[in-house]
Amino acid sequence: MKRIINEMKLRLPAISVNAAVARSVISAFMAELNPTVDELGDVRCAVSEAVTNCIVHAYKLLTDGEIGYVYISARLYDNREVTVEISDNGCGIEDVALARTPSYTTGEYGERCGMGFLVMESFMDSLNVKSRPGKGTTVLMRKKLNP
Ligand SMILES: Nc1ncnc2c1ncn2[C@@H]1O[C@H](COP(=O)(O)OP(=O)(O)OP(=O)(O)O)[C@@H](O)[C@H]1O
Ligand SMILES: [Mg+2]
To answer: pTM of the prediction?
Structure first.
């Protein structure tokens, strides 16, 4: 049975500067497992994509003055597994399978390429996306680091 060796929870306003904050925090949090440069890069990139999605898509319907938040919760296990859950209370996704299709985007033409979920999927060992329209979205990802 794997055991948790460390965990953290973080709440950040959904503003663009916080994608970089989330990347830095996850790096510092994982350091305990001595990840390789590649492993660290993979997790940083996946976390960045998930947080950016909350910032760019989840709260686009909020009116001026309303603040949306991104919730990040991460765990390290004694089998060298890292799990990161990133969620929001935003607009949600009507069709998750469609949203996960490479090149699918609801972003402004030319601004986004619809590759975020593909990046998360390829850089992590598993990706689980749960969403309820009008309620929000939760992305759970795992990666097992090399021994
Ligand atoms: N947290 C979220 N809340 C609401 N909709 C989301 C969320 N995350 C993703 N989506 C929807 O899923 C689509 C696909 O996301 P994905 O990250 O793959 O591509 P993108 O964000 O559009 O482009 P890219 O990530 O390449 O800049 C988005 O265009 C958006 O419609
Ligand atoms: Mg994206």
So the answer is: 0.97
